[in-house]
Amino acid sequence: MVTESAVKPFCVGIDGVSIRVFDTENDIELVPDSDGYIPEGEIYITKQVSVRVEIEPGYNIFGFSVDGKKNITPAKAKNYSQTGRVYRKKVPIHIPIHKGKGLYTQYNENHIKLLQVSTDGYFAVWEVAIVFQNGSGFLTTQRVYEGFVYMGYDDEFSCPEFDGKWPQLIRFIGNTCNENGFSYTDFPYIDEYASDPEKSMDNEDDGVGRVKWYNVAQGFGAISTNKGDAFVHYKDIDSPERLICLEARDMVLFEKLIPNTSYGKGFPYKAVGVLAPEA
Fold this sequence. Notes:
- By secondary structure, the chain is mainly beta.
- The chain is 5% helix and 41% strand.
- The protein has one helix spanning 167-179; strands at residues 2-3, 17-23, 28-30, 48-55, 61-66, 72-74, 78-80, 84-92, 111-117, 122-133, 136-148, 150-151, 157-158, 193-194, 208-215, 220-225, 228-233, 237-238, 251-253, 256-259, 269-272, 274-275.
- The model is unreliable at 1-9 (pLDDT under 50).
């Protein structure tokens, strides 16, 4: 049986993909460290950077964008016979109007979405982003969704995990596979699907949570606790790493839950004093 797998850990690199960042005002390339940190310099005084994503030939990775209603539009790419596809994104860097606040980017502006799909039905959605945390700038790459698409009885693509909550994604995957010559016989049939049930947190101690999801480009996520789901912001996470990022299904400790009155509508609680697991 083919099961849905957990979102894999944060990583800076994607096979077959090269990523470069430029200060568009001064035409200077910015070179991040291995964890994505962009050393102090031009990014901290410029108003905009450009992210350049190049896909090597032979890799089934495609750019796309999403609007507020989850509709998907394929990204326009420059095609080269030898160097593959290139996607570019200009990311504005905002200066806060309030004292004590650092530079920031907005989620609707700061990232490029990439669809990775293989002939066995596996797919992943990546986000390549420019983010700021605690005054530091980072180039980040995160696999935010993954799973398998299946062939249904009517020869239509299906993914039970996403058919209801994001059907546009499954249609986009199907269209992308059709346009790139994927054979239907390569995909598993829907009979092979087996859900991966989420473990209950009812019997866990207070102060213990499991990460449901975390989006580094947005700067927040959610954890499951014995009192329900709780919103978690990177500023409430204690981490030894320069770039703060939790991983789906990790167990974490937190100091307390408080009523959630700001971010993350739909979450009754906010977790504070969250201790990130050591890498």
